Amino acid sequence: MARSHTETHLLDRIGWLRASVLGANDGIVSTSSLVLGVAAAGADSASMLLTGTAGLVAGAMSMAAGEYVSVSSQADAEAADIAKEKAELVDSPAAERAELVAIYQKRGLDRALAEQVTDQLMAKDALKAHLRDELGLTDEMAARPIQAAWASALAFSIGAALPLLAAYLAPRASVDYWIAGGSLLFLALLGGVGAKMGGAPVGKAVLRVTFWGAFAMAATAGIGSLFGATVA
């Protein structure tokens, strides 16, 4: 007797996972870089925290708006394709059937079987069959603007709060090291968690996010040291 088994796939996570990882990564990198930049310029602790908090609020709102607009554009394009496909199924059902038959033949089915599969799928849900196999649109991959906006804004806020916490707790004399070290640690953890949830190699993801995070922090700290302007 064959045993049934349950498979867990990752496609249903892709919308919120992408937005969350992007938001948290941006929150850590941008806020830590911003605070390190003003710290290197000679700012006091209060100014660093104020600058970082302003960066957190502005960044979270920017991420939410950007994700919403971007994913809404994708949703609009998907809606237009769906409307077009609906009209074509009404106006040219034979041509639409022929398209599906050709698609299944390219995937390896002989013509007779391709026609049989096409007829059965179109009898059940013609639109869904065409959206999935002709256009590559599925429920799991559908654009969800509000979900992406909230996930991105929340993740950015959490990510940005981490270097701010390090700046708050650190002695002023060593605040640069606390922020940089803590942020790189947070980035490494984020890269590992994101890779694990997405089914990707962990080591590669950790190396990628920490390298670019360190580069961004070094660049802004260098600019702050170069100008040496104290933030009042």
Can you describe what's shown?
- The radius of gyration is 25 Å and the shape is elongated.
- It folds into 2 domains: 146 residues, no CATH class; 50 residues, no CATH class.
- The chain has 7 helices and no strands.
- The N and C termini lie far apart (75 Å).
- By secondary structure, the protein is mainly alpha-helical.
- The model has no long low-confidence stretch (mean pLDDT 82).
Task: Give the gist of this structure.
With 232 residues, the chain is mostly helical. The chain is 80% helix and 0% strand.
Descriptive labels:
232 residues; mainly alpha; 2 domains; 0% strand
Blueprint (SSEs and pairs):
Blueprint: H1 14-40, H2 45-91, H3 93-106, H4 111-133, H5 145-169, H6 175-198, H7 202-227
Apparent shape: elongated
State Rg.
25 Å
Total number of helical segments? 7
Structural class: mainly alpha
Helical residues, percent: over 70%
In whole angstroms, how far apart are the ends? 75 Å
**Strand share of the residues?**
under 5%
The stretches of 5 or more residues where confidence is low (pLDDT under 50) are: none
Strand elements, count: 0
Mean pLDDT: 82
Number of spatially distinct domains: 2
User: How many strands, what sense, and barrel or not for the largest sheet?
Assistant: none
* Topology pattern, helix = H, strand = E: HHHHHHH
